[in-house]
């Protein structure tokens, strides 16, 4: 478009012509024709008639010409909108129903989108984050990639697929900021190249220099924006200041930007240089394998994760063959995953399921509204026909319908946004710990934009579907015909199809929800093998416990800690109602990396050692005798540890029944267990089996049980090192008041130590939070969807029944009795139910296998569930057809016949 | 002018483009009202081309919005107020371009038909 043309167009855009001008122009044309005709000798009447015939539809031409105006759309829009609002005012119930239905669909979808967005779609807060990967080894006990100094340099120096590679320490650890206002923080180490790898620059100050990222380098630290704000009041003089962390002063050289998160998503407030020792000295660290770390890398442009993995394979092989001891070699694998997968892989499926069900709900809502719009359109057929006869083009009528539906859907979107904000609150209140980013989910511009897209899409859908269905012969409609017209599915074929579709989608949603519900019930009702009632756990955060953040290392302050723990135990024992006070470092059904050992590491004396790399893992806990009493885990063979054995020089252990069965071979194995000696690891220490305990769930709530070995925690300092011990108390009195007493007792022994007290029941419930969350969400969607679908079915049946009042009258007059009418109407509904149900069932059977990993001890095609869901849908849907059918049945034939 | 190149792709648009050309050419002779344009085209084509009013007025208005023609109300031959259209400078340029294009097209079609005939 040339500049001139543009100017010309804009000019007309703003200059409104008097509406009469066009009329006058056309009138002039007609009048000239009449003059010509008169001159040709026609009568006045004839001349006028001929002129008009010649001209064609004056109104049509008027409209067509008018439409050439550049501002045409803008001018008709408010007009259509006004017209639409007048329509809504005339029928507020319909408008409210439509808006409420759509708002529910849009709101629910928006809410789940805001939760899944960060998990599935939103860019990670790093520069060009799609190219960031997590790289390292994985093994049966640790599924997140890790590296150790022993081979890090080799990989780092010889790799080809990455432009950069940098590491952080394995885990943030608790550290104390010793200032005027001491507090416990999380500290973590990373390399100087770590922030540049992520594309993050400090908010102010600077990153570590290479010479600072060296053993023995200057003590420097970066702090998080949160710490800067909460502790230093956003004071810029923090730079170059010394802060005292765990008794070591460090100079603050920078503040990280607000909202910075570690790629591992762990919280951290203070960051130190990782200061890896050079490759040659790594062998002196961490039992010879080198410093442990989490490594991240940036892919070269255009390289995929698969290609990078293939290119790293030779380096990995070399490490496997030269570095990892032969017996456990096969247990280690190379793993490279995109950073997004590293962060959210285990919840991506759940996020997709929730998003899908939200979309399904919206689909049902749209179908419902479109169906309503069609019913209304049918009632307005004559109005439309008249407007069409007056010169409104088909396009114009469609535009009018679209304006109406967009107006409705946008109002619904506004309501939906409010609903989404409310739903999000509920989600966060339920906040399962296992869903990352849930607490951070917000309705922001991006989410609002998504909502607008949803609104436009649903507005288009509900505006266009009825328009498509509109009869072509409007004139026919205007005469009030089209009553008995039939097509493939009858006159209301599309509506019927939509109702069947809604039922099918409901069936899918219901099946998914029912499966999750069954799975959740199984989780809740399973026998854990212990009695959680009245059990409390106490964790004391003794200062500088984490001297070395390495698994299995003994804290430097072990002796002093052991003393404090012993005093605390004695004090709690004196409390009223306390039945047992035991110690462990973790509790079933949880446990993880730190509480697992390799099965192959246990050798029964007098028996061939198990083949290396076989048998998977073993749950390992270091406990005192009261542990079994506190949790009421029965000893099925032999006996419990005794208090006397706690002072012994010898080591004792108790096996779980599963461990005993797996470890002790032989015919009389069961009786032969007690007194056997078992060595653990290669250092030759062994312990005597004193008993066999009943199995408890110990692989988490849903994973299979592991064999479990209980090691007696003796009264010697080395048994009280890392990991942090946890006191397990069983009380007969209320857990609440007992907790208060425990706090008071510990405060007397170690006044400054923060104490964390939880009930076991509460922790168990928290473990089930995620399945509970998924189940309630899907359940909510499924029930809402069912209600909508059934209302849709009811509406259609009732509408058809009313439309056919006359036909009913004729049938009755011809001898059909009331039951026949009932059957006639209900059968039609039944056909839709069967069609929708069958399609839904097939789709559900095809789709639910995606749920497999979310389900616990129920198959994705559990027959009972599917039969139950099918019956439920059937009954509710039948009810929805029978009620209007019954009303139709009661029609008085005489009234019905006069109906028209 | 963006519409020009895309304008001749389908027969329907070719037809519309032709109508524009005819209108522009007619108005190039003298300013005229809508009825006059229709009459003139009919006359000049010896009744072969009858312009339906349903397309004439939308076309006139479209051309006006594009800035190729302009309009003013003036007294007509029978002393009635009528809307007279006249070419603008841009319209003249457009007419020249469309004529040239028409010639090229006609020549091309002629070539093809001549080829087919021989």
Structure, described:
The complex is a heterodimer of chains A (900) and B (118). With 900 residues, chain A is α+β, with helices and mostly antiparallel strands. Chain A is 51% helix and 15% strand. In chain A, a hairpin with a 5-residue loop joins strand 20 and strand 21. The longest helix of chain A is centred in the middle third of the chain and has 41 residues, at 339-379. Residues 480-489 and 546-555 of chain A have low confidence and may be disordered. Chain B has 118 residues and is α+β, with helices and mostly antiparallel strands. Chain B has helices at residues 2-6, 11-29, 34-44, 53-66, 89-117, and strands at residues 32-33, 69-75, 81-87. A three-stranded antiparallel β-sheet of chain B has the order 1-3-2. In chain B, helix 2 crosses helix 4 and helix 2 crosses helix 5 (89-117). Classes of the chains: A alpha+beta (900), B alpha+beta (118). The A-B interface holds A 1-2, 4-5, 7-9, 12, 21-22, 24-26, 28-29, 31-33, 35, 54-57, 60-61, 64-65, 67-70 and B 1-2, 33-35, 38, 52-54, 57-58, 60-62, 65-67, 76, 78, 80-83, 90.
- Cα(first) to Cα(last) distance of chain B is 38 Å
Q: Strands of the biggest beta sheet of chain B: in what spatial order? A: 1-3-2
**What would the principal axes of the Cα set say about the shape of chain B?**
globular
Terminal residue distance of chain A: 57 Å
Low-pLDDT segments of chain A = 480-489, 546-555
Approximately what portion of the residues of chain A adopt beta-strand conformation?
15-25%
The succession of helices and strands of chain B, N to C, reads HHEHHEEH
Main sheet summary of chain A: 8 strands, mixed
Total strands of chain A = 24
Mean pLDDT metric of chain A: 83
What class do helices, strands and sheet pairing of chain B give? alpha+beta
Shape of chain A: elongated
Task: Work out the oligomeric state of the chains in this entry.
Answer: heterodimer
Helix content of chain B: 55-70%
Number of helices of chain B: 5
Number of helical segments with 4 or more residues of chain A? 28
Radius of gyration of chain B: 16 Å
Q: Which structural class is indicated by helix and strand composition of chain A? A: alpha+beta
């Amino acid at each position: 478009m040339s500049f001139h043309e543009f100017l010309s167009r804009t000019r007309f855009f703003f200059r409104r012509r008097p509406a009469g001008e066009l009329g006058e122009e056309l009138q002039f044309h007609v009048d000239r024709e009449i003059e010509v005709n008169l001159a040709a000798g026609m009568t006045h009447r004839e001349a006028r008639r001929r002129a008009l015939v010649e001209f064609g539809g004056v109104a049509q031409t008027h409209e067509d010409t008018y439409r050439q105006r550049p501002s045409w759309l803008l001018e008709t829009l408010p007009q259509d909108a006004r017209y639409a609002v007048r329509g809504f005012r005339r029928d507020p119930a319909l408008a409210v129903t439509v808006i409420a239905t759509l708002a529910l669909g849009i709101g629910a979808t928006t809410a789940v989108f805001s939760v899944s967005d960060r998990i599935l779609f939103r860019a990670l807060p790093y520069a060009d984050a799609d190219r960031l990967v997590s790289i390292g080894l994985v093994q049966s006990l640790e599924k997140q990639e890790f590296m150790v100094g022993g081979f890090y340099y080799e990989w780092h120096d010889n790799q080809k697929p990455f432009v950069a590679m940098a590491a952080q320490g394995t885990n943030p650890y608790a550290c104390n900021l010793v200032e005027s206002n001491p507090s416990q923080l999380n500290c973590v180490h990373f390399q100087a190249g770590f922030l540049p790898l992520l594309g993050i620059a400090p908010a102010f100050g600077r990153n570590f220099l290479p010479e600072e990222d060296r053993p023995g380098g200057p003590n420097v630290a970066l702090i998080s924006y949160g710490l800067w704000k909460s502790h230093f009041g956003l004071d810029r003089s923090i730079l170059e200041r010394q802060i005292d962390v765990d008794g070591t002063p460090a100079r603050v050289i920078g503040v990280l930007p607000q909202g910075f998160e570690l790629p591992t998503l762990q919280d951290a407030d203070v960051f130190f240089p990782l200061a890896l020792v050079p490759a040659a000295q790594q062998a002196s660290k961490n039992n010879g394998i080198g410093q442990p770390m989490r490594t991240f890398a940036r892919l070269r442009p255009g390289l995929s994760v698969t290609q990078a993995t293939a290119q790293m394979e030779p380096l990995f092989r070399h490490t496997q063959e030269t570095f990892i001891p032969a017996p456990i070699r096969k247990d280690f694998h190379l793993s490279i995953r995109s950073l997004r997968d590293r962060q959210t892989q285990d919840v991506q499926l759940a996020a997709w399921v929730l998003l899908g069900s939200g979309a399904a709900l919206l689909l049902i809502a749209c179908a419902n509204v479109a169906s309503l719009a069609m019913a209304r359109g049918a009632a307005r057929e004559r109005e439309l026909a008249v407007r069409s006869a007056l010169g409104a083009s088909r396009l114009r009528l469609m535009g009018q319908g679209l304006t109406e539906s967009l107006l409705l859907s946008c109002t619904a979107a506004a309501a939906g946004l409010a609903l989404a904000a409310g739903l999000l609150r509920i989600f966060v209140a339920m906040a399962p710990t296992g869903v990352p980013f849930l607490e951070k989910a917000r309705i922001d511009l991006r989410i609002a934009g998504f909502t607008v897209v949803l609104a436009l899409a649903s507005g288009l859908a509900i505006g266009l579907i009825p328009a498509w269905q509109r009869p072509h012969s409007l004139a026919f409609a205007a005469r009030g015909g089209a009553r008995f017209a039939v097509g493939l599915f009858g006159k209301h074929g599309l509506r019927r199809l939509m109702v069947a579709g809604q039922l099918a989608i409901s069936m899918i949603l219901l099946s998914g929800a029912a499966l999750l519900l069954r799975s959740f019930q199984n989780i809740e009702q399973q026998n854990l093998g212990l009695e959680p009632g009245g059990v409390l756990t106490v964790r004391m955060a003794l200062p500088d416990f984490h001297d070395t953040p390495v698994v299995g290392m003994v804290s430097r302050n072990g002796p002093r800690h052991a003393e404090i723990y012993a005093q605390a135990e004695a004090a709690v024992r004196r409390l009223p109602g306390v039945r047992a006070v035991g110690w462990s470092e973790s509790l079933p059904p949880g446990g993880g990396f730190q509480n697992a050992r390799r099965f192959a590491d246990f050798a029964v004396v007098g028996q061939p050692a198990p083949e290396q790399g076989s048998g998977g893992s073993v749950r390992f806990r270091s406990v005192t005798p009261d542990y079994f009493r506190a949790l009421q885990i029965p000893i099925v063979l032999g006996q419990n540890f005794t208090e006397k054995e706690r002072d012994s020089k010898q080591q004792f252990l108790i096996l779980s029944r599963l461990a005993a069965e797996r470890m002790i071979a032989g015919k009389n194995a069961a009786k032969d267990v007690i007194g056997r000696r078992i060595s653990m690891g290669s250092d030759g220490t062994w312990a005597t089996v004193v008993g066999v305990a009943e199995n408890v769930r110990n692989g988490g709530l849903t994973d299979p049980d592991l064999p479990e070995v209980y090691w007696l925690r003796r009264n010697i300092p080395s048994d009280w090192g890392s990991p942090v011990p946890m006191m397990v108390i069983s009380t007969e009195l209320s857990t609440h008041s007992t907790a208060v007493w425990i706090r008071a007792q510990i405060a007397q022994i170690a006044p400054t130590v923060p104490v964390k007290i939880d009930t076991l029941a509460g922790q168990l419930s928290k473990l089930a939070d995620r399945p509970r969350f998924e189940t309630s969400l899907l359940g909510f969607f499924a029930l809402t969807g069912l209600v909508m679908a059934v209302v849709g079915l009811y509406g259609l049946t009732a509408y058809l029944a009313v439309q056919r009042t006359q036909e009913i009258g004729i049938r009755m007059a011809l001898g059909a009795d009331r039951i026949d009418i009932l059957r006639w109407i209900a059968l039609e509904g039944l056909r839709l139910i069967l069609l929708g149900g069958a399609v839904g069932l097939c789709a559900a059977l095809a789709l639910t296998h995606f749920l497999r990993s979310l389900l616990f001890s129920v198959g994705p095609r559990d027959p009972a569930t599917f039969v139950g869901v099918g019956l439920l849908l059937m009954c509710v849907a039948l009810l929805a057809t029978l009620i209007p059918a019954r009303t139709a049945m009661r029609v008085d034939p005489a009234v019905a016949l006069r109906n028209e | 002018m963006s519409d020009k190149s895309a304008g001749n792709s389908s027969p329907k648009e070719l037809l519309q483009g032709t109508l524009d050309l005819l209108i522009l050419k007619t108005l190039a002779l003298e300013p005229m009202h809508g009825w006059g344009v229709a009459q003139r085209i009919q006359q000049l084509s010896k009744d072969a081309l009858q312009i339906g009013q349903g397309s004439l007025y939308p076309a006139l208005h479209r051309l006006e919005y594009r800035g190729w023609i302009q309009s003013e109300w003036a007294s007509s031959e029978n002393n009635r107020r009528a809307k007279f259209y006249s070419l603008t400078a841009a319209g003249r340029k457009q007419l020249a371009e469309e004529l040239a294009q028409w010639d090229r097209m006609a020549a091309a079609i002629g070539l093809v038909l001549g080829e087919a005939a021989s």
